[in-house]
Amino acid sequence: MRCVSLALVCTILVILSLPIACAWDTVSVSLLPAPADMPFYDSLEEGAGFAAGWRSPSSHPGILCAWEQSMGSEGHSSIRLGKTSYLLTPPFATCWRTLKYDGKSPGIKVTMKVRAIDVSKASIDVQFCDADDNWTARRAAHVGIKISGETPIIHHWQDYSGAVEVPPGTRKIAVAVTLVSAGTIWFDEVRVECTDDFPKGEFLANVETAGLLVEDGFESGIEAPDQWTHGPQLDGIKYIWDKETFVDGSASLALEKKKGQTGPEVCWRRTFEHKDSADILDISIHMKAEKLLAAAVDIVFRDEEGAEIRQNLFAIGKPKVNIKPISHEWKTFATQVRVPDGTATITIELQILGRGRVYFDGLSMRYPR
Ligand SMILES: [Ca+2]
Ligand SMILES: [Ca+2]
Description:
The structure is a single chain. This protein has two helices and 23 strands. It has helices spanning 2-16, 18-21, and strands spanning 40-42, 54-55, 63-68, 78-83, 93-100, 107-119, 121-129, 135-144, 153-165, 172-179, 183-195, 205-206, 212-216, 229-230, 237-242, 252-261, 267-273, 280-292, 294-302, 308-317, 326-338, 345-352, 354-366. The chain is elongated and about 70 Å long. Mean pLDDT is 84; it is low at 1-36 and 202-206.
């Protein structure tokens, strides 16, 4: 009896919060229309304007979520997700469906057909909501490449499937398909069922912050953005916290060198503790060059004893004296790196290696889930 009334209260609360559920940055989901019991099967053929029961955030430039009417692995309909930006940061193209959960089944298995064009990274996740309306998620399946640098995948309809453990206290679940990288995917024939055969999931985190190490626009601080320090004061070098040139917010970090070359010690740097169990990190940043010979972004992995492994992430130009300097507007640089075993801290260095001026903004570091 108590369960029934709680379920009623939850349902009413969710219905009351519907306008909020439409906002981009929330993962709240609606229960419209009445969700089906499991096993759940949906070929995405029914609906008016959009596939019945499926939700997506409000539209955003470069992000597409559409009910496809002329392509299906079964029938003639599916859902298409598209993203134009190669940045592995939000907004993502995503779509989800909330389902009833019986409160007993220890695991959930999801199966669906997926068609992909030029996809590096997409995921099929199961999300869990507790009594306090906190959402967490587990990855059921990954769609895309395994290692940075591989060619994005293209394939016709293929089965993707995965099972996840349901955390204690789960009141409802949602199945979500999310396109993180650029590309296009379609999905169809979604099947969700209870199972007791699933791998023990190690990671469970808040959906909105899952895997995020940092998103830094260099906005706040006193003499420099919070937690950023710079290298030595040398003749002809300026370390600038610039408040006139930026991609977002109202500030960026810049470096200026009057002439000649410099070493990597001329940099802005910030250090993070590496505590995540993941050994892969997605990193992106925006850079702008003004009459610049060369700049670079390095990552330095240090173990408990301080032994370091240094790796170049991005580079502009060449640190040679007799070449023509480069100027370009903001460009986005993105990559994925493997975190070496035993890493305790991760330092990002934003360097200038030759004369000119370079700006940095919008650093994002994320452990992919
Ligand atoms: Ca279909
Ligand atoms: Ca900024």
